[in-house]
Input
Amino acid sequence: MPPLEHIAWHAALREQWRFVFSIALRHLGGKKRQTVLVVSGVTIGSMVMILTLALGEGIVQDIKDKIIETSPYIVITGEKMHPKETQLYTAGSDSSVSYSMVSRIRPSERKQIKPYTETLALLASIPAIDGAAPFVFTRGVLRYHTVTRQGVIKGIVPALERTIGNLESKVVTGSLNELSFTKNGVLLGSGLARKLRAGYHSLISVTGESGRMFRVRVVGIFSSGFGAVDDNNAYINLVLAQLMNNVSADAVSGIGIHTTSLDVVNETSAHLRTATGYRTETWEEANENVITLFKRNNSITLFLVLFVFVVSGFGIANVLITIVLHKQHDIAIMKSMGVSRASIEWIFLVEGIILGVTGAVLGGIAGHLLTALISSLPVSYGESAVVRNDHIVTVERASFYVLTAVFSIVISAVSSLGPARRAARLNPVEILRG
Output
């Protein structure tokens, strides 16, 4: 195309779009009340969608943060990857078929890492690991005066436990350091302490799986933010847990591990399975059910919110159909003056897109302000909540605003297709004669 013709083509195209936008804005301006109502509907839909995404992501992120803060990234369990086989039966030499029966289950054999000091030495040689702490896991009964509660008791080495998590920062009364020099000390979860009605330095009784009763002193109370953990868990010294559970001094239930980065967790976990011969479990695998549950609930809520946009789409279609009915005479005149059918369609498509874009922009602003307001309010989830916090956690991402805007514009454009085609199909001769 020669330069002059190219310039003329661009000028004509700009003039055509200027005409389309001017007519579209004039139509919407003539129906101010309906336009405001439809834009309000799209705005509310965008605002609610952004808030829903921010709240849903906030809940999941809050759970992940609490898990990462209080739990090791990887746990080496006492379960062996390749258990020893026990010969149960072998067919006699006179049998026509040669077969044997073996068992990989040893009922009397505990799932333990033994000797655990060798495994700790191996872990210290792996660059990706910057912390490892052995533990003994047991269930027991805690008693204070006449109050009795069941609990999960974890024997730890306080000095090593500091290297794999932030348990120390979760202690609200007493300290983790006091546990290290109190052989019969115990750290109680805040919910468990409340149920027992025990406080700092209370003397309580603990009975482990061995059936032996031990007197322990409360040296601290912690609050992790997880209801299930705070209501049931307690920490004691590793040596005491070994005595309570009849575990030998060189054996533990497992080893918690902290890596230099979350990005190397899966790779390191796979390497440890091969290097140690024990099964490993990452923090995501251990809490997969909880995280999946909340993600599923977020998806269901988001699906319901999308119907707000569908309702807004019907509102846009209704407004444009009304404009078509009221502007039939004007449309007929434009078509008789040579305005193409495509231009007529674009006028009404642009009207729908303008409504969607305006609603998306206003909804984005309103969604951000509302999200910021909600996250700043002091809110208590209550003692029965699964996740406890003193405020509602929200997470805003640029993708939330882009997704909301795209969905709003697409719904608006689709809703305007019907009225646009209807306007383009109008016969100017019949209308002008009428």
